[in-house]
Amino acid sequence: MDVTNFSSQPHWRHCYRNICTDNFVERKHSFPSPFTTSFKTHSRTKKITMSSEVVFNLEYLTRLEESARTLESTPQQRSEMMFKAQREVDAYLEQLSLDHPTGWVIPPKETQGQDKLVQPGQYQVQSGPNQVQSGPDWVQSAPDQAQSGPDRVQSGPDQVQSGPDQVQSGRGPHETEPLPIQENGVSIDEVLRDFSRIGNEMEREGHPGHMAYVPGNSTAPAAIGDFLAASFNPYSLNVASCRRAVKMQQMIVQWVGRLFGYPSACAGNLTSGGTVATMVAMTTARDHKVPRSKDYSRSVLYLSELTHDGVAKCLSTLGMREAVVRKVPVDDKYRMDVNILRKFIENDVQNNLLPFLVVATTGTTDVGSVDPVPAIRAVATQYNMWLHVDACYGGFFVLCNSAKHLFEGVETADSIAVDPHKGLYAPFGTGLVLVRNGTLLRNSNTRQHGNYMQDQLTNPEDWNPEDLTFEQSAHFRAPRVLLPLQLYGVATFRDALQEKLELAKYLYLRLKGQAHIQVVEPVLSTVLFRIPGVSDNTNRALLREITTDGRFFITTTTVKGVLYLRVIIFCYRTHRQDVDVFINKVKDAVVKMELPEVEFCHAG
């Protein structure tokens, strides 16, 4: 029997409901032949003979339905779950600024200090439509900001010290095993109580003192966006399934494209992060520049020595493990040395290799430096190479007027990767890829639907997200980016990012005048400093002294063979009072180390 057509009839659905409640009533007038005579009831066994060969156990089916209906929550149940979940979130955020940025409680408050290096009103910057001033005497309230400062009270018996290079690994004093997956469910209270323990066993990347790596942040509207996306749960990669969801994603992609000066013919997609965004771009570059797999082994990828490690990782995933990778040294400003790049390419061409891709970075993870994109573009054009720009960390600083010049030439790149889960404070798992010539991206990813989708109405003019990435059945990521932008407006994000640039300058100027400290002038929001003329172990001891009480989390990095302490100011909850406390930490740590008297150290 044709179950699809048969079940679509109202009388069949009514009859089926009766079957599922063990109240089957034979309705001869409702069923066309031959189905009218093929159903017989068996009251003792609660079974129905659907044909001479098939017997249906209605009691079993009813039990299954009753259990399955547990998934169909009521409005009251949803409200109760959301209310209780929100209590856990509020408790975590209330405690967020009180504890160690790596998750452990820290000791009592400490007074912040202030010196006279930067005078009030100096370096004030106006930005955004409301011209909100930022500078040493002003603190911007970021999205979803709870005010915090040096008068916060911290307490707790189980403090854990962080080491010079990493947070202690292994099980911490609060760590427990997650609630196991069981045959039968438990209460929402037990589930949330178990989940909330994660707040005590994680790096708190939204903490104002988390100044390591590139900390992730998330706002309340972004969390609501994820809730809405998961609740409505559209298939957001195809116009035929949900045109509005596709349009929301395309609107974000085109807006970001305009930020970088891309033409409307560009195309892109929201991805799970920067590495996947880079991989989608590199796949397009491979298909366009190295169409034959037999040439993979002589293909050459050019990076700087400070390019993110995820770029080279993509080669293996793309099946180009045998490709050659050239790491180009950086100059004294930590930018790719274009003269050396050119020499590498010339030598490779002479050796019958195939230069196909060069990656420039606007905001290196180690330093925050920006490669000279126009000069690299000229070299790429000369040798018919694809130019990809890694803007994952630094990309959204393009919103800030003071930083726009750093992105000169990006509009000529063949592709760009940028992370909304960094500069737009979206939750982790939010990257974005852009390809200048959208047709090339589409050619590399067009989906050939299976027969089960042959009845789906399609329009060749529709650019479906599933045809612009290798991902299918991906999470509907657009709301987590779009809702905060719609609610707060672009100006709020511009001001928050501009504040971080100003705080990095502020930290640089304050440290520059301190004895025994060498500091690198920041390009974006990353500041490197060290004690010069001493061993690396001494600088690691300085790191331990700064982080030992757990108020701040920073790490070291090594650039051009030199070890530095690295600070990145990126969390939207980090403000001047937090930086002032950090500066006093550095000053006190240096004093405790009893170093020889010096006047001051020049910036590096």
From TrEMBL:
The modification N6-(pyridoxal phosphate)lysine is found at residue 422. This is HDC protein. It comes from Branchiostoma lanceolatum. GO terms for cellular component: cytoplasm. Keywords: Decarboxylase, Lyase, Pyridoxal phosphate. Pfam families: Pyridoxal_deC (PF00282). Residues 124-182 are annotated as: Disordered. One of its GO terms (molecular function) is carboxy-lyase activity. Its cofactor is pyridoxal 5'-phosphate. SUPFAM superfamilies: PLP-dependent transferases. One of its GO terms (biological process) is catecholamine biosynthetic process. Residues 124-134, 156-169 have a biased composition (Polar residues). Belongs to the group II decarboxylase family. It comes from the Eukaryota.
